[in-house]
């Protein structure tokens, strides 16, 4: 019989917000006198899986926070979970396993157990095999759990791996996902942090040089940028244990990095994979994952309820299977619809009417100087913006949004100059602008709930469904996760009836599937309503998908930046990719963009022809 699990996502459960344990009040089982839903020891709802029947699907729908899951597990999933968070918590079935000599990627939606799996491999989490975790961990119980894993994976590569773990022949080093938590626990400079894990000055300097963070070493850790912090955390993971580590785990190693840094970090991580060393990386940027990994485990299941790791597949096959939503070897469909990319060539620049024009602009921001050559945003076009961090992309968007004023030159709406307000805010009376900034400070919304700030979006069923906003409506904005806040702010921006939409880094904090959903939504809405958008992002796949034209930022990070374009996609991409020394092709099956292997036949041919971008 098909097994079913019932789960309450404790961080979503809000008994006060639902008017007082709504599930207990509406559950058909509870009404019949059975204790299907009860108040748990933590004050949150608790579900009793044993007495939960199909009739409770109504209770699942009633929970306004989407905290209850009742899921039928795939028939093939006969084994017990490797780990379960409490009696009605998330279950992790099977694990991705490090492969020596390879970079092994992990791909899956948020909430599917990727970080949990990585923690089990890193031995930071002792699996309980579905039994409540025993209190007071001892050496013996740790050993027992490893023996169980060995038994569970008998006959597979995983068995060999966990035998090595048992025999202490594996030393694991892990770069955690949440690098922004580092300044909360460590005080001092970046170099002082690295000295805590490595006493060899030369090794610290070499790693810093390879990751291009030498200039940040003397900076206080609370003052470094997100991109620098990410690379400092990577350096710390690699320098740990005097280089004796043989399994490196990197949970989202490219968040906060621009494309150039992502490529650089990927090259750095790839060099760590040797016959006696394995590298595992959780990554949401599909183009980067494709470039970085030799093989990929897909994690599927239901977000917040359960997760399963597939067998490893060669990267290209794995990403295509992920997009298809179907694992052929395992005969497992994990998504009803496949995700397709268009094979049509990118639009060329065409004669067009301008919505916004600017003449040569200049802006001084401290020591940084931003210039922009004269350009315009044509009506009914989506203009992508690419460039390294620290080149003034966000400042340029703020000028268009009317939040800051150029020192020299001016911006024109049609024939009229744009009016800037002294204190920021959208001020042009000529056109309506809707702006999603890069940094969103959820604290500024005070006690407000999502429903309070999404008044317009709630009437737009397409936005609500595609961005999965419904379960977030009664949550406080200040309590949203990074990915949830991003989706809410995208919905808020797109719900406005504007002429120009400015979106600064909409892919940040989103998983691969959400990034594709946002790309498609954006493209469809701009096409349908004939609107103009400017989209800044580091996710090449998103920019490639949404853009008709491209602006490219060049210069020296934090010193000077120059905005160029908009160009046609072909010209803009060729110029940008040439600066990174990479070439792109389309995958012949899925049509998704892929970076050619450096110095491969295609890479060399495209470079000789000056065709860095497919056309
Ligand atoms: Fe309320 Fe949903 Fe929590 Fe039940 S699970 S108490 S309905 S928030």
Task: Please provide a written account of the structure.
The protein has 615 residues and is α/β, with parallel strands linked by helices. It has four domains: 4-72, Alpha-Beta Plaits (2-Layer Sandwich); 92-333, Rossmann fold (3-Layer(aba) Sandwich), CATH 3.40.50; 354-567, 3-Layer(aba) Sandwich (Rossmann fold); 581-615, no CATH class. The chain has 21 helices and 29 strands. Strands 5, 6, 7, 8, 9, 10, 11, 12 and 13 form a nine-stranded mixed β-sheet that branches. It has an eight-stranded mixed β-sheet with strand order 17-18-27-26-20-25-24-23, with helices on both faces. Strands 19-16-21-22 form a four-stranded antiparallel β-sheet, with no helix packed on it. Helix 5 packs antiparallel against helix 6 (157-166), helix 8 runs parallel beside helix 10 (226-239) and helix 18 (512-529) packs parallel to helix 19. The chain is globular and about 70 Å long. The structure holds iron/sulfur cluster. Iron/sulfur cluster is lined by residues 8, 13-15, 18, 21-23, 45, 63, 65, 67-68.
